[in-house]
Structures are given as C-alpha cells and as structure tokens.
Design goal:
heterodimer; A: about 100 residues; B: about 300 residues; 9 helices
Chain lengths: ~100, ~300
C-alpha cells in the first residue's frame, strides 16, 4: 500500500487574484508532488492541497513568504485512512 | 438480501458486484444487469438497467465514480439504485417515469481505479492503463472524451492527474460507455456523479461559451439544487463547468451534450469541509438522500419535457 503518514491536507481561503496566481505557480512545481484536491480558480472557492510530508516545510514556507493564510484540514492523512479501513473491516464482519 | 446490506458503509468492488446480483434477483421485474464491456485490467463493467418493458425507450444515464477515489460517489450510486428499485410501485412520480422511460446506472465507472484505491493507493483517481514510454500509469477518464479533446484544462503529461490520454476514447472504460450510448441512440439525459465541493454543472467545460440550452439547463439545475438543499441545507453552486470551476476539456457531459443529449449534468457531491475524499461513511446516506432529491427533479423534468 501507498502510505500517507505525515501527509497533510491544507485549505486556503483565497483572498485575491494575486494569491490565485501564486497558488497556480505552486501547482507547476512538480518536485513537490502536490495533489490539488481543489484547484486555485477564484476567490470564491477554497483551495485544498494534499501535501506530502516531505514537502510540508517548503509549501508552508512558500505560503508564509507570500502572506497566504491556510488551515490544516487533515493533520495526518494516514490516521484518517486507518480509521476508514478499520471501519470497513468492522462493517464487513457485521454483514457476514 | 438487500435489506441486510449496509448502505451506510464503503464496500469493495466484489461486494458491490455481488449486491447487484441480489438487487436484480429481488426486483427481477424491473432491474437487469448488463455487461457493457471490460476494463483495461479485464474487470467486467456492469450497468443496472431499470426498465418496465419495451426496447430502447427514452432513457436516462447515470454514472458514478469515474474518478475512483471519490468514494462517496460510488456509495451514493449503490444507495440510489436501491432507492429506485424499492420506490418503484410506491412513489407515484418515479413509477410513472419508469413506465415510460428507462434508467441506466453505471455505479463503478472506473473499476480498475476503484480496486486500486482499496488495495494500493487510496488517492488514485485515474484509470490503470499503461502508457507506452512512460513510467506513469493511468488516464483521467474525464478528460478522455471526444469533446474538445486535448484542449485547455487537460494535461499531455502521463504523470499528471488530469492526463487526457493518447487519443479520444483511448480508455476502454470510456469507449464502453460511448458504444452503449451510441448503439442505444435514445438517451435523453446523461448525469455524471463526482465528489466533492458541492456543484451541479452543465456543459461546457472545454469552452466558456454558453451552450444553446444554457438558460434551460441553468433553470433546471437551480430548481434541482433547491430541492437538494431543502433536506439538510447543503449549499450547492450551479453553472457551466468552465464558469464555476475552470476550463476542462474532454469531459463526459460535454461529449454527451454534443452528441445530442440535451439534459447533461455533472454533480460534485458534498464536502464536509474537513475530510475531502475521505468523507466518513456516516455521511453516505445523508449525501445520497439529498442528492436523490436533485436527481429525481432532473429525471422528472426529462420525463415531462421531451425533445
């Protein structure tokens, strides 16, 4: 299995067109291996990004440097996936 | 027994396929299971056909989970199929609809991807096809349709999550649907269900120009969303793909609209704002229940406003 330990999903409530452009620039940084769950489009929609653990400091540094506020939506993705899997196993046993 | 099936849980592909057989057995006067082809990894692709008789009657298409990681979509599809089967004969409006039209549901539109999300990578979105000359696998099956193929909002890089593929309909999962829709020839609505971010969209994604039926589609969409919102207050946005998200070429509902299926819509189901694609299972039934109100509105409109 692919493991997501330490990966975070961050949410950015975009406040300006300039921030949209800065986030689009971030989207092109392939080495960060970011997974945009919601893409930067406008100030009307948030941007959600799954950030691998290895890229967290770079991404958060980038956001701080450009004064782009964000919140951590999912603190540790793997924890949530473990819960999801455990719940599925319980359900499967109940059905049997 | 479908009564012992837990609709408020996520299930593996084998469980869903097995449940389909149970549904068919329990509602044999209404539901049949059709194999429309095989996936890249040779898994069968099953469509549930809800029909009270006749051949190639006006029909409504619903697919769920073309992006495999959007699990609440497939789960909503399962709940919805059961709802249609159990409400037929009880709900007068649905019964009248099924007395004149058929409903086709493809609950696992990307079976290989779905299995991959259970076995290897929960965040997998694409198909699993191998791309010659690339170490990356998979095509975004919602960028692979022959509708502005290769245009804006789709990537030519096989490693991208929105890779459009080597050619339009290169993905067998897409081609299987195209073949069915074309050979049938009488689909009046095409509804594709995704998650998340709470949107109800109509064509186009490949262009920001309004489609000729934009006012009507917008009006139908807004009325559908009003009903959806009435259940739990979930807020949706309505508009064309291009105008409320971003340009995205090669999408399924653009293809269906350009093929002549006027009532083409795409849903993005609810987002609690905390979980994204890992929506907790206790949200499945609320999501499916509210979505049903919108789906039903669209289907009733299709029934009452033929073209």
């Amino acid at each position: 299995d692919r493991i997501f330990t330490g990966d975070q999903v961050i949410r950015i409530d975009v406040q300006s067109k300039e921030q949209v452009q800065l986030l689009r620039a971030l989207e092109t940084e392939e080495e960060l291996e970011l997974d945009f769950w919601l893409h930067p489009v406008s100030t009307e929609r948030p941007v959600d990004i799954r950030v691998p653990r290895s890229s967290l400091s770079s991404v958060k540094g980038y956001l701080h440097d450009h004064n782009i506020p964000f919140t951590v939506m999912i603190d540790d993705l793997q924890e949530l996936l473990n819960q999801e899997r455990a719940e599925m196993e319980v359900n499967q046993m109940m059905e049997r | 027994n479908t009564k012992s099936f837990n609709f408020g849980a996520y299930h593996r592909l084998e469980t869903i396929y097995s449940w389909m057989d149970t549904l068919v057995a329990q509602h044999s006067n209404l539901v049949t299971k059709l194999e429309i082809g095989r996936s890249y990894e040779n898994r069968p692709m099953y469509v549930l056909k809800f029909s009270t008789g006749g051949n190639k009657r006006p029909a409504i298409w619903i697919d769920t989970g073309i992006h495999s990681r959007e699990w609440v979509s497939q789960a909503t599809g399962v709940w919805t199929a059961n709802k249609i089967a159990t409400d037929y004969g009880r709900d007068a409006s649905l019964t009248s609809l099924l007395n004149t039209m058929d409903i086709y549901m493809l609950i696992l539109a990307n079976p290989d991807g779905y299995v991959h999300t259970h076995t290897h990578d929960r965040m997998w979105r694409k198909t699993r096809s191998q791309i010659p000359g690339s170490v990356c696998r998979g095509v975004d099956p919602n960028r692979n349709w022959d509708a502005g193929f290769g245009g804006p909002g789709a990537s030519s890089s096989p490693c991208s999550e929105s890779y459009h593929g080597p050619s339009a309909h290169s993905e067998v999962e897409v081609k299987n649907v195209v073949n069915l829709i074309k050979s049938h020839g009488n689909f009046k609505a095409f509804i594709s269900v995704h998650a998340y971010s709470q949107l109800l969209m109509y064509p186009y994604g490949y262009s920001c120009w309004n489609v000729p039926h934009q006012p009507e589609l917008d009006s139908v969409g807004r009325a559908a969303v009003k009903k959806l919102t009435s259940l739990y207050g979930t807020q949706y946005k309505v508009g064309s793909i291009c105008n409320i998200i971003y340009p995205a070429s090669g999408g399924s509902i653009d293809w269906s609209y350009d093929t002549g299926i006027k009532y083409s819509f795409a849903f993005e189901l609810r987002d609690t704002g905390r979980y994204g694609f890992i929506l907790p299972a206790n949200q499945i039934i609320p999501t499916a229940s509210e979505t049903w109100l919108a789906l039903k509105h669209i289907m009733e409109y299709v029934r009452d406003d033929p073209y």
